[in-house]
Amino acid sequence: MLKPVLALALLLLVMIAPAQAAHLTVTGEVFYRERIALPQGATLYVGLVTMPSGNPVVGAGAAIPIRGQVPLQFSLNIRSDTATEAGPLGVVAEIRSGQTVLFRSSAAVPVDLLAPGPVSILVTRQKLQEPVPEPPTLDPRLIGTVWTVTSIAGSPAQSDTPMTLEIAPDLRADGSAGCNSYFTQASLDDTALRFGLAAATRKACTPRLMAQETAFFAALAATAGYEISGNSLRLLDAAGIPLIGLVASGE
Q: Any signal peptide, and if so, which residues (predicted)?
């Protein structure tokens, strides 16, 4: 009777042995060459990956709070069955600040879980993404309105064909200069408004109209800002002196 009981006990020991198998431990250090102090609250992440694919091994990674500066010592506990089930393995590391990766290993360091020894992991500084600046808010009063020129440098605009200016949402500006049609590119930042050199058709008109057109293009090129009051628009130079007076068409 004793032999069957002993055999059953041995069988149970064999069955539960894998569940009670000791964890393997990978130890080592993580370092970088830059002379940079880590911010408070930074975290070290160390994990196993399969070689050579670099795929993370599920359950074989840990985030470790950082105390002090490099080299950073770590100890990673891994289930013993990982050594035989996952195939060739390597260790990777990252240093994070919140969700931002500051340093990362460029390649996995090979490790043998059946004969683990201390590993040394070099991490390199990661280029932080620059925040994308928000585009300036376009003044809805200025954009998409057809403005009619009423004066240039204080002199009333005189032309059988209305002189106009319209700025599109993409800041392309065009209109009529009284004789020729023109287009240019505007740049807008708050109340700062500027125009590039205007390109125009080459129609010939009276000397008076041509002189007025030349003055209009020169005033556009000197524009540095603007003011809107009701239905009136004034284009200003860098000193705030009015260059061109305009009113919204249809007013």
A: 1-21
Copy the structure tokens of residue 13.
Answer: 């020991």
Q: How is residue 131 annotated by DSSP?
A: P
Task: State the DSSP code for 140.
Answer: T
What are 158's two structure tokens?
A: 């005189």
- The 10s digit of each residue's pLDDT in 47-62 is 999 988 888 888 788 8
Residue ending a domain, among 95, 125, 155, is: 125
Q: For residue 244, give every residue at least 6 positions away whose Cβ sits within 8 Å of its Cβ, in sequence order, or none.
A: 149, 151, 152, 153, 165, 216, 219, 220, 223, 234, 235
CA 218, CA 220: separation in Å to the nearest integer?
5
Q: How far apart are CA 221 and CA 213, in angstroms?
A: 12
Note whether 45 and 62 are within 8 A (CB): yes
Q: What is the pLDDT of residues 96-150, one digit of tens each?
A: 998 889 999 999 999 988 777 899 999 999 987 666 666 667 888 899 999 999 9
Write the CB contacts of 5 (distance below 8 Å, at least 6 apart in sequence). Answer: none
**Number of independent structural domains in the chain:** 2
Point out the domain boundary residue: 125, 156, 189: 125
- 3 state SS of 189: strand
Assign 5 to helix, strand or coil. Answer: helix
5 token code pair = 């009981």
The rounded Cα 174 to chain-centroid distance in angstroms is 33
Q: Which residue has the tokens 């000197």?
A: 222
